[in-house]
Amino acid sequence: MSDEKHLRRAIELSQGNAEAATGGPFGAVVVRDGMIVGEGANRVITDFDPTAHAEVVAIRAACRQLGTYDLSGAVIYTSCEPCPMCLAAILWARIDRMVYANTRADAAAIGFDDAWFYEQVALPIDGRALPAQRLLGDEARAVFQLWAQNPDKIPY
Ligand SMILES: [Zn+2]
Description:
The chain is an alpha+beta fold.
């Protein structure tokens, strides 16, 4: 019941973009202890930001609201099954659970083909469409070692 209420809010946020054509028709809310602590609609077009997907916008809002980078104990409600970037953001945020409405296939049917991204992520790095070249491993690894040895670091 509560799940449906929060998911309806996510769908409502997506509807605003669908009607005003201000961004992709996607909305998301983050809930902790039964309260909405962050919400967002897709802002890719309005913010000139390809990473401003609804889930990322909602996670950023929730973290600002709560003053944390760790959303353990929270649930994310999203109007559509997330793309790989948003799935990773949800995992990085340590969110406990996800509830969604539209599927990846539904998104693909209106031109948002995240399926290709999921395929790319699963490929080895030299098998992807994105050319990738590794350089300066020793120099970068030295910085990792510096961080690993820093007693003031905050692991997350
Ligand atoms: Zn996304």
